[in-house]
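The material for today's practical consists of a large collection of protein records. Read left to right, the backbone structure tokens trace the chain's path through space. An example says more than a description, so a record of this kind follows:
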Amino acid sequence: MPRLIISLLCLCLSVKVAAENLLLSGEVAARNSQVFVTPESDSWMMQISWMIEEGEKVSPGDPVVQFDTASLVASLEQLEANLRKVKAESKRNELVQSLALSEAEHAHEVAQLTLQKAKLDAGIPRELLSQLQFEQYQLALTRAEGDAEETAKALANKSKDVVAEKTRSQVKIAGAENELRRVQVMLDSMTLKADRAGTAMYVDHPWTRQKIREGDSVQRGFSVLEIPSTDDLQVRAWLNEVDIARITQGEEVLIHFDAMPEANLTGTVERIGNQAEPKQYWGNSGYINVDISFASQTELALLPGMSVMVEVIAEDAP
């Protein structure tokens, strides 16, 4: 009897407990992609007036997203009219200032001629003139000198006014032109074009988690569309933070595709994120990003966004 008990005890000690495999939800992701974001504008919300169909092939230079431009077009027309007005006012002011400057120059020339005549009269010897006439010539010289000095000052001030007014006009015109160019650049940026060939993919709204589509209003800086590169694909999976100890970098995993149940590939854990983030509708737990590379090249027609299930094979615990 004691020998039987010992045998059973040894058998129990040699049995291994089969641990459950760790399953991670994920999707096929592109390492490189062109992401289209809502452009800068005077409004913090922009409406998408047109967007290419999801899954459609695009070539470099093809338009993929068009935002509503009604307000920008109206603003552009108003700024063009304002620029014409500013230029017309500048031209009118230039003519007025030019006329005033000519008048000041003429007044100064007259004063100079009067001064020259007064100097000639005042230079007549005293003995050749009566006392009254001599004093009148001296008084006329004093007045002519004062008038010449005053007209010289007026001419200098008017010249400065002309230069200042011209500078103000140039500043106003430059400001109107800059504002017009700024709005024109914004208007041009309302049409987003592809820089690479690929397949258009819709992206999720960061608040509602619903795909952004044509007709939606989005905030500035929001991603609205993506063209991923299919040349270098990987798997992006999400690991519950409580299972962080059950996976290691460099570990081999199995990859199952929801769209192709019969197709299974092997992969390698390439990177494990450092910070857990909550996933909406997934509960209160935090999830860590896990990047998985394919172990070898595959002929499967994989596309970014395809749902996958990553299986981490657990070792049997003794």
User: Anything to note?
Assistant: The mean pLDDT is 88. The CA atoms of residues 232 and 249 lie 20 Å apart.
